[in-house]
Write a structure and sequence with these properties.
With 159 residues, this protein is of the alpha+beta class. The chain is built from four helices and seven strands. It has one domain: Aminopeptidase. The protein is globular and about 45 Å long.
């Protein structure tokens, strides 16, 4: 069955969203200690909804199984030829639901949002395990210009 269309998330969804994020982070190829220490920084809180847009995909039972969040990109993070962009802040899919097109649906929703807002493109700062997904999705890998500032796995797609 094809994935359902993403819908905007609300504060009522945060517990379910954070369960998806916790499961996704737990699947990363990192030590358990690193995952445990990093997880709180990935979880969304009610105040995050003031500046982030979250979209979720639900299964047939209305359970959230995938989530994406985006916000305007900091111009300092954009490639030199771009003046504006949308930052895909996070994209998470329950591990047992990966490779079913859910991540692609959410990525396309972010691409569409960037186009609708007439932004120059979509910026992604990917966790190392997710880099192959973004390469396969046709994103352009950006070089690290400033190792002290630039995220190592950055991707861009012009709008």
């Amino acid at each position: 069955m094809p994935p359902r269309d993403p819908r905007p998330a609300s504060a009522d969804d945060l517990a379910a969203i954070n369960r998806v994020i916790a499961a996704a982070v737990d699947s990363w190829r990192l030590s358990q200690r690193v995952k445990r220490l990093a997880l709180p920084s990935y979880l969304y809180q009610p105040h995050d909804l003031a500046h982030l847009e979250l979209r979720v995909i639900e299964d047939q039972e209305a359970e959230i199984i995938a989530v994406a969040a985006w916000e305007p990109a900091d111009p300092r993070d954009l490639p030199p030829h771009a003046a504006s962009g949308l930052l895909l802040h996070g994209l998470y899919v329950l591990p047992e639901r990966m490779r079913q097109g859910l991540g692609s649906v959410l990525l396309n929703a972010a691409r569409l949002t960037a186009r609708e807002r007439h932004l120059d493109g979509l910026l992604i700062k990917a966790q190392a395990d997710a880099a192959p997904f973004f390469r396969a999705a046709g994103m352009t890998e950006l070089p690290v210009r400033d190792p002290k500032r630039d995220f190592p796995n950055r991707f861009w797609q012009s709008g």
